[in-house]
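Fold this sequence, please.
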Amino acid sequence: MTQNTAALPLDVLSRHRVFGLLPEAGRAALASQCDWICLAAGAMVREQGQWPDQLALIASGAVSLQDPDLDWAVALQAGECFGAGVTPAHQQAAWQALAVTDTTLALLPANALTALCAANPQLAVFFPTLPAVDRPAPEDSGTALNLLSAPIRTLVKRDPITLPPTASIRAAAELMRDQRVSSVLLVEQGRLFGLITDRDLRNRMVAEGLDPERPVADIATRAPLTLDASSPAFEALLLMARHNLHHVPVMDGPRIAGMVTATDLTEQHSTSAVYLASDIHKQTTVEGLAQISTRIKRLQQHLAGAGASAYSTGHIITAITDALTTRLIHLAEAQFGPAPIDYVWVAAGSQARSEQTAKSDQDNCLILDDRYDEAMHGDYFRAFSRFVCDGLDACGYIHCPGEMMAMTDTWRQPRQRWVQYFAQWVNTPEPKALMLTCVFFDQRAIHGKAELLDTLRREVLQRTKGNSLFLAYMVSNALKHRPPLGLFGNLSLIRGGDNARTIDLKHSGIVPIVDLARVYALASGEPAVNTYDRLEQVAQAGEVSQQGARDLRDALEFLGTLRIAHQARQTARGQAPDNFLALEELSNFERSHLKNAFLVVQTLQGVLGQRYQSGRF
């Protein structure tokens, strides 16, 4: 598959029986929103259950829509469309699309198609499955992203389909055909043994020429990742996105409750994260990853439009960053060879906290095994880390202005050197050390030997817990970021510069909460990294009152939601997303809540400052 950047789109659109109805300016705007791809004859355009939220226009060539389970096929020619607005959602879950000849497609996001029909109502008649733009969707059409908070058990639609591991591969294939499912759980003595999918049949049996009478256990994924039935459904999205999965067994204690698949998560605004991650894992070049990364802003738009929480949005957007990072690491190892010693690639800052939005730079580091020898291993890890960091930069995660990245020699060190770093920062908390702690005390393993980081973090928390001198400096540093409230509780806007008369939601609102939660966690030795999770843990540990923690969590969620919605609006207008919110964007109700959120932060900062001043640390 290749991307076509020639001046083909306007010519095709002007001759099209539907899009030709648009004025010239409208066709030009439409062309700018389309991705144009070329596929060779026989290429799979869409696999079953993997239909992104897009309309596909066949510019040239031919496509066959097929339901392999029912042995149905429909031939589509140049000028015809499929996907969002045309193909019913229930068929998208069961059908696949195959390029019959060399084919060129134009891909238009569903939200752009909706906006197009809203601006040109006469076109809506050609897209019967597109949700109406002038009225709300029916109440039973899928409660936007309520599935993000609904328990996973609500997505399990049938009893588990099972076989013993000793059954033949042929028996598994026959069962999947008869039950019209794409996976089977392998169960032994009532316990989950493994999982087999239609892809396993294709890749591990047919492609390898295995005897179909062999035990199905020979081609199964053993001890698969599972989820608890009571977990929120967005955890299924994260698991699928981070590990490139499309089937996850659901457990109710030791009992197997069933299976949840990507197609079970029928709200495309959410499942696009799964398909986006899947596309990432298929890329073989940095250029391919950079092209896919442009879809992250659109994903955040979908999540904001569907009312997803800031907490779940942060986790989902960060999961895509994790997937890009992991794939770049795989490409680096393919180019430079396997690493000569153990290492762990570590995310820091907002990626570590799973709190990223569509606007993020990169903060990362490498922890190397203590067997590291500069003469023997230095060149490898220097080239390896630069490849990954430069790749992230190409994908829109700009190089950290402070050079806090693994490609910087200082932040690519053996574990023992990292122990020395943290000991120095804790024992001598001068200004630069405090700045570094705000980045590197928030860490999460992305790829490699996670034990290198896990043992380091345990040692660090032992150093910080109850360390009154260090914590006093951390409190003083945290109180430098104050919410923008005036003497009488009015909002104080930025006075000059490019962002005059706005509020910096990140540094004036979200960062102070992040700083408070970090201090609480370091003081109590709690291991959570995500700010929301930290506040829950430290409240249970008694470091902050239950009410104070609840108020901070609610303030964080409100500010985060405002920030995500603000950035989604900017993206829709073709602007680069930022953190500067104009009060004109808010209703009076929202402004009142914004003041209350800032007041919560101001109050808890005051409590922490008094505790420090009174020596209770």
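The first helix runs from residue 9 to 15. The radius of gyration is 26 Å.
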